[in-house]
Every structure is written in C-alpha cells, then in structure tokens.
Amino acid sequence: MRRTVFNEDHEAFRETLRAFIEAEVVPVYDEWFAAGQAPRDFYYKLGELGVFGINVPEEFGGAGLETHKFEAVLTEETARAGVTFGGSGVHVLLGLPYILMLATDEQKKRYLEKFVTGEEMWALAMTEPGTGSDVAGMKTTAKLSEDGSHYVLNGAKTFITGGVHADRVIVCARTSAPREDDRRFGISLFAVDTKSEGYSVGRKLDKLGLRTSDTAELAFVDVKVPVEDLLGEENKGFGYLGHNLASERWGIAYGAYAQAKAAIRFTQQYVQDRTVFGKPVATFQNTKFELAACQAEVDAAEAVADRALEALDAGELTAAEAASAKLFCTEVAHRVIDRCLQLHGGYGFMNEYPIARLYADNRVNRIYGGTSEVMKMIIAKDMGL
Predict the structure, then answer these.
(1) What are the C-alpha distances in Å from 104 to residues 63, 112, 302, 364, 374?
(2) Which residues belong to any copy of the Acyl-CoA dehydrogenase/oxidase N-terminal domain (predicted)?
(3) How many CA atoms lie within 13 A of 243 on its CB side?
C-alpha cells in the first residue's frame, strides 16, 4: 500500500541504516544474543552514524530536527533485520525528551554533547520492585541536604532498560510526601551520574525476550546528587512523566507494528523454501489464507501507527490516542507473530530462526509503557465511561 508518511530524506536514511545493520550488526548479533547485551562500544558507532543527534539542537552537535520519523525508520529497519540496537532505544525515546523539555541551558550544555556521541548513555528509572503501573506509589526518596548543595538518594529500581551500560539515569524519587488529596504530588526527577558513590547496578535481569537489551536492577544508598542535576521543578515529576507517556507509547506501538510486518517477511521466505509432502508450504491454501489475514491486520496497524506518528510530530497526539494505538498495534502483533510462528512448524521454536526471537521480544509490548488493561482504562475514560 502507498504510504505518505516518509519523504526522500527518510528513505535515504533507511538505505544508510540498512547497509549499517548488514555490515555492523547482523554478523555479530548471535554473539550479542548469547552475551545478553550489545557491547558498549557499539553505541559510539551509533553516535558516529548520527542516530542519537537527530532531535538534538545544532548548537549541541545534533541535526536540530523536530520529528520522530527517522526514529520510525530505524524501528522498521531493525525489526526487518530481526535485530535490536541493545538498550539504545531508551537513550533517545525515553531520555532525550526529558532533557529537551526540562533541562536548563547550563544542563543542556553539560548533557547533550556527550549524549549525541554516545559518550554518555541515558536510561530512565521509574519502576520499583513493588510498583509497576502505580507510579505514584514509589518509595525511593531524595532528601535535600542541610546546606542545600545536594540531595541524598535512597531506594531501588527494577526493570531498567539500558541500566547496565547507562552513564546517567533519570531517577524518579520522592522529595515530599504525597498530599491527602493528591498522591501524585512530591515526585521529582534527577539526572544521576552512575559513577556516584552508593549507586550500584544489581542483577542484569534474565528476560524472556529482548535478550540483547541490558535490563537491570538499580540500588541507591545515600547517593549524593548535586542540586544542579535536578530536572525541572521539585515535586512536579509526575506531571513530567505523564507528558512524555504519549511518545513512549507511540514508540511501543510502532515497534510492535514493525515486528509484525517483519514476521510476515520472514514467514513468506520460509514457506517458499520449506517443502512438505513434496510441495512448498506456500502452495497450501491454509498458508495463503493465514498470511493474507496477517497482511490485512498489519496493513491496518501500519495505518494506525502512521496516523499516530503524524499526530505526534504535529504535537497533537493525545493520551487516549496513544493508548489506542498501543493497544491496537500490540494486540495485532501478538496475533500475527503467533500465526507466523505456527507456519514455521517446529523450526519456529528454535532461537536460530528470527521468528522465535520476535515471538519472545514482542510479548513485553502489552506490558511495559502501561499494560493493555491500563490502555483500555485510559480509552474508556476518554469515552466518558
């Protein structure tokens, strides 16, 4: 189907990216998979490629563009190749929006030049062992010192993507107790230097999918965070988090759609090559009907993902629209990838085949960034229900 969302610049970036993936990622991806993370020096290569600087102002070494379309192309191309770029996705999709929105000029100068080159990789630490979707229930605290020069950070975070390699982590912590009429009050955001004394990375978590993405537990024991590393205003963190949830959920929706599209590509290749009862699997009516149904679903998901992308770039993507896109695209991907794996037969269960890795990687899409159930609550509320 003809798409109008991308122009010549985006397609030129696609060609560059596709060549980079073939040369730098595909040959070593099995090693990354076995190690459970991409090597740290790979992020310097992404910096050289310009991936981290697309939305960063030119004065800090970026391209100064205000668009998510190059990010969308990257999402499609990594899915197409059956690879991921480790934990680097959170660096751009989760880290950068907070810097651009909240950082002072002085902070931007300190943070962004190293952000663009990959010298400082960023992550976001929101989730705690006892709090998932209930962000307001976090227990991590940041107390201002008596002399007002720094905060003292104590607590723990879990499921932190990019947490092993991160050089700075945006940590959400309580600077004040919640109010009786507003339990969301009292949360603040800090750009914490991971080399700080008392900061520690616990287990690198053993996940079902996204094996090349380093996901960790973090602990803070009397970590001193300079007041110069407070992002935005004290106690207003929950509102900041909500402001960026729409773009985060768009990113998950787009990733899920791209995975489903890739699953069809892998399966078409497989069923044309695989012979059963003396005939290619692709010649059986069931195969044709299954893949046709999958294609129809992916066409619909592409339209939803593209529409959300246009709205996001225009600054018009609402919380309910983002929730709807995430719910629809992740559920489509779940169905499509499952059916595509079935068409692979026993080989679909083997990790050497991209479809098996896609199946595992895709499962978390209906959980992180807000579960499908939470998305339904947001949509229902928007409907006035």
Answers:
(1) 20, 11, 37, 34, 33
(2) 7-119
(3) 13
Residues in the chain with pLDDT < 70? 1, 132-133
- pLDDT, position 1: 59
In which residue are the tokens 């037969």 written? Answer: 345
- Which residues are paired to 201 by β-bridges? 218
Nearby residues of 319 by Cβ (< 8 Å), 6 or more positions away: 242, 245, 246, 378, 382
Looking at residue 133, what is its pLDDT?
66
* Neighbour count for residue 84 (Cβ, 10 Å): 24
> Where does the chain have alpha helices with state H?
8-20, 29-35, 42-49, 69-81, 88-90, 96-102, 105-117, 237-273, 285-313, 319-343, 354-362, 372-382
> Of 120, 248, 290, 302, which is the active-site residue?
248
How is residue 248 written in tokens?
A: 């985060």
How many C-beta atoms lie closer than 10 Å to residue 15's C-beta? Answer: 11
> In sequence order, what are the residues at sequence separation of 6 or more whose Cβ sits closer than 8 angstroms to the Cβ of residue 1?
299, 302
Per-residue pLDDT, 373? 96
Cα–Cα distance, 168 to 162 (Å, whole number):
10
Tallying the residues shown for the chain, one arrives at: 385
pLDDT of 128 reads: 92
Inter-CA distances, 35 with 18, 121, 210, Å:
24, 19, 12
Place of tokens 């978590």: 205
Measured CA to CA, the distance from residue 157 to residue 140 in angstroms comes to: 8
Phi-psi region of 345 (alpha: psi -120 to 50; beta: other; left: phi over 0): left
- Whole-angstrom distance between the N-terminal and C-terminal Cα of the chain? 36
- The total of other beta-carbon atoms located within 10 Å of residue 100's CB is 14
